[in-house]
Every structure is written in structure tokens, then in C-alpha cells.
Amino acid sequence: MLYLTLSLVLSLAGLLSAGHALLHKRDPRAALGWIVMCLALPGVGMGLYWLLGVNRIRTRARDLQSQGSTWFEPSLCAWSRESAEQYPFRAENFATLLHLSDAVTRRPLLQGNHIEPLHNGEQAYPAMLEAIAGARQSILLSTYIFESNPTGRRFTDALAEAAARGVEVKVLIDGLGERYSFPPARRLLQGSRVRVARFLPPSLSGHGIHLNLRNHRKLLVVDGVLGFSGGMNIGDRHLAESSDPRRVVDIHFRVQGPVVGQMREAFLEDWQLATGEGFHQEKPPAVAAGGQAFCRGISAGPNEDFEKLPWILTGALNCARRRLRIMTPYFVPDRFLIAAINAAALRGVTVEIVLPARNNLPYVAWATRSYLWELLLYNVRIFYQPPPFVHSKLLLVDDDYALVGTANLDPRSLRLNFEFCLEVYDRNCNRQLAAHFDTVRAASRQVLLADVDGRPLPVKLRDAFAKLFSPYL
């Protein structure tokens, strides 16, 4: 009798969970998958659905957006009322992207910024530590992984020293990302004046246990006027010249100018979610000396009403008239991305994609290979960059536009993670990034359609099986 009652309860709960998926999942494939799982696996399927398939995160930033807050600084956007044609985003193709980004990002495009690429930890970490050492008022640091190896300890020591001299120091570490290292970096900061918070740590209370919905953002804002962002976490593995077998190649960016205010805002939104503490907007920093870049900070994540990154990526790819350069460590394209890339190639745009020859997540590389033939068939040029593992993320459109930051081109980044990217209109910066891309491409091996078609049958089956789990990789 007890067994029958339990079966009925689990079946009813599974049915209700399936109904929830039917009503709330936007992607019909995801909805169908969860419905089948909830009904076919009573109890287990329902548990997995509520653990992995339901987004219960809503932040104040999203509330402000729904209430109509414009987050706009007209004094910094006088160009928006001008008709001058020297602005690249006023070109016919980029004007549509500007309108799209204006509509979905809740932040304006700001002029007068200076963006400097920093390659690997050898360039990025000294610049970041120097900024921390020179801080006088505040340090805001957000990272997905904060390792406790020698590099991590250099940062914890610098942060503790800054806090000891009276600087307000806030450090936000992802609740799962911190577990990549032991002891956790936050333990190294215990006893100091540094305030440390964890973003959505696994818990049976509060926001619950989330294996997805991770904070993948990397932000450092010093005194509200100097910022750093890009693909690098904090740890020895980003020292590309080291002997660490896990070492990676990556790009970070030093940022000065008004857009640093948007980086500060992005950090404080996450800090509010993690701690419940409110914050107030401040006047953006002044225009950077010699700053020529027009930039916009994009906070994307499951707390937003729009799927910002998929929409902006589609808009940016559609803007290309001559050349598209894409560099990403994880490439698991959705149908929209494949369509946009192929459409660009078919209208005569030179499309080049650089991927790592050796991926730190083999199953992602397997899934990736199952997609490549769809692009190679339409003359998209794909290259494998030799080891060490390449973690860099770049999207360059013609000579005018770059999208850089933390997002990979996979479902996890585009739909599940909290990400931060920068839109950059600056021909000088884009020229530097294009030169780096072209140098890397020249040293890489081109992938041909014959290579993909010539895989042994067991390899094709393995890759195709991994592809089935693309939405969850």
C-alpha cells in the first residue's frame, strides 16, 4: 500500500513538473526533453528538472529594466543626436546593430575609452597587481576561479595589504568555481579586512543547488576608474610560459574611460545578488586621455529578460561585409549561430574560425567536430591552433567592431552563465586584435572537409553521441 501511494505521489509530481516545463521552456526541444524525463523517470526526472532545468534567479537589475529604467547618460552620448558620418556605428550595416544593442543591453554606448589587450598572465597579472597596489579608495574583484597556488597567493596578499591600508576591498568568487582549488582562496583572506562573498554556493536553502547559472564574469575595478576584464581567471595556469601542463593561452584587457562605470555596475549587481546589499549609481569616470574607443558593457545571464548574447551575436555577424574573425575555446553552435555564419560566408564574407587543437574538455571537442562539416561545406575556414590550450575569445567584424569578454560560443555561456562582454568600436584596438588573430591563424592547421569526413566510424559515432548533449555541455 505504501509503495502504491509513493508511486502515485511521484507520478503526480512528475506530471506537474512536466506541465511546468511545457509552460515555461522557450525551446521546444528542451521542453520535450524535460517532459519525457519527468514522465519516464518518476522522482528522478522531476528532481533533475527542478535542480538543473528551472531558473529561479531574478536580480534587482532585471527589476529596474522591467520598470523602464533607461540606465542612460545623455551627457556622454551627444553623438547619438548628431549626424556625423565618421562614427563607424553610423555606417548602414552597423547602425542596425547599434539599435539592437541599445534595445536589449540597458546600457549606452560610451565614447572616450582606451582599451589595451594584455596577453596571458605574464602581461595581465603584473598590470592587475600594480593597479591593486596603487588603489586608494576601492577594489572590486569578481572571478569564476580563484586558485590558491602561488599566483593566487600573490593576489590574496595584495588584496589584504590594500584592505589593511584602508581601501574598501570586495571579492566575489563563484560558489562552484572556488572548488577548483584547495584550500579555497577565501580561506587565505580570512582574518583580513577583505570582504569576500560567494556567488550562488550550493545550498539547500536560499537559491538552492545550482550546477548551472554560474558567474563566469572576470572583473577588476580599481577606484572606479581603471578596469580589467577578459577571459582570465586567477591562477598559475594562465602563465603561458610556465611548465604547467594545464597552462592556457588567453587575452585580458585593461580598460580606462566611462565604460569602467558599467563594469563597476555589473560587479555591484552581482554583489547585491550574493549579499543582499544595495548600491547606488555613480557618475561615470572621465574620458580617458587619448581614448578613441566607443564601448559598451554587456551583462548577460539567466536573470535577464532578453537572450542578449545570441541576439547581439546574430546582429554582429549580419553586419559583416568583408571579414569575420572568430576565436573561441568552446564552439558548440546553436542553429542560429550556424545559420548566421553560413549566411555571411554565402554573401561573400571571408569567415575564419580558430579553435584549440587540444581542448581541456575532450567531450566538448568531440561535439564540436560533429558541427564543423555544416560550416566547411559553405567555405567557412576553420583552423586548429596548436597547444597549449587556447582560452581566448574574440569576435572581429571587418575593421570596426570587436566583441570581447568572458563568453564562449556554447549554450552554457550564451544561455546559462552570467557573462560580461565589451562591445568595442576602435580601429586601433581592432587592428591589434586582428594582427594577433592573423599571426595565430598562420601558425595553425587548417581543417578541411575531407578531414572531417575521413574520421573513422567509431570516432564519428563518439562525436555524434557527444553532440546529442550539446545543450548541456
From TrEMBL:
The lineage of its organism: Bacteria, Pseudomonadati, Thermodesulfobacteriota, Desulfuromonadia, Desulfuromonadales. Its EC number is 2.7.8.-. Pfam families: PLDc_2. The keyword Transmembrane helix applies. The chain crosses the membrane at residues 31-52. PANTHER family: CARDIOLIPIN SYNTHASE (PTHR21248), PHOSPHOLIPASE D (PTHR21248:SF22). SUPFAM superfamilies: Phospholipase D/nuclease. Residues 211-238, 391-413 form the PLD phosphodiesterase domain. This is Cardiolipin synthase. Keywords: Cell membrane, Membrane, Repeat, Transferase, Transmembrane, Transmembrane helix. It comes from Desulfuromonas versatilis. The keyword Ribosomal protein does not apply. PROSITE patterns: PLD.
